[in-house]
């Protein structure tokens, strides 16, 4: 770039490009913050179907809800401390195949954020019920991405605390 100054045609075109990019970025931020009710419902349905398949031990169906490189983080209360584990979706699915007990995991107090119609975040409280008995409770957090096949879970993190929630 020459040093001809700010008033040159060269700077004017570059300035116009920079200004256009800034305006587009500002517009996209506004778009990112407004998700439609239908989009939020689609994300919620994906998460609820994942949890239903998980509780019913439909392993192949659970795997299809995840991206190929999904990450699963578990934080469990053990005694007086919290212990965390991190696994790839594949390793987590492999461990899941050893499960024999079906369960239900209803969620409530759900918060959904969708950015740019391509990235979604879901936070929800849950309880795990086995034969009408609450085994544990905690918080589920999901990050989903929109693919050509629809919404997929790229990351799931959850806390697992034995027993009923304290407010029950």
Please write out the topology.
Elements: H1 9-32, H2 37-55, H3 59-64, E1 66-78, E2 81-88, H4 89-96, E3 107-115, E4 119-130, E5 133-147, E6 150-162
Parallel strand pairs: 1-6
Antiparallel strand pairs: 1-2, 3-4, 4-5, 5-6
Give an overview in words.
It is a single chain. The protein has two domains: 1-34; 35-162, Nuclear Transport Factor 2, Chain: A (Roll), CATH 3.10.450. Helix content is 34%, strand content 42%. The protein contains four helices and six strands. The chain has helices spanning 9-32, 37-55, 59-64, 89-96; strands at 66-78, 81-88, 107-115, 119-130, 133-147, 150-162. A six-stranded mixed sheet has the order 2-1-6-5-4-3. Strand 3 (107-115) and strand 4 form a beta hairpin. The chain is globular, with a radius of gyration of 22 Å. It starts with 8 loop residues before the first helix and ends in a 6-residue tail after the last strand.
Rg over alpha carbons: 22 Å
Share of residues in strands: 35-45%
Helix content: 25-40%
Q: Mean pLDDT, as a whole number? A: 86
CATH-assigned fold name of the largest domain: Nuclear Transport Factor 2, Chain: A
- Continuous helix count: 4
Strand segment tally: 6
Main β-sheet, spatial strand arrangement = 2-1-6-5-4-3
CATH architecture of the largest domain: Roll
User: What is the ordering of alpha helices and beta strands?
Assistant: HHHEEHEEEE
Kindly, what is the distance between the CA atoms of the first and last residues, rounded to a whole number of angstroms? 68 Å
CATH class of the largest domain: Alpha Beta
Poorly predicted ranges (pLDDT <50, ≥5 residues)? 1-11, 15-32
Domain count? 2
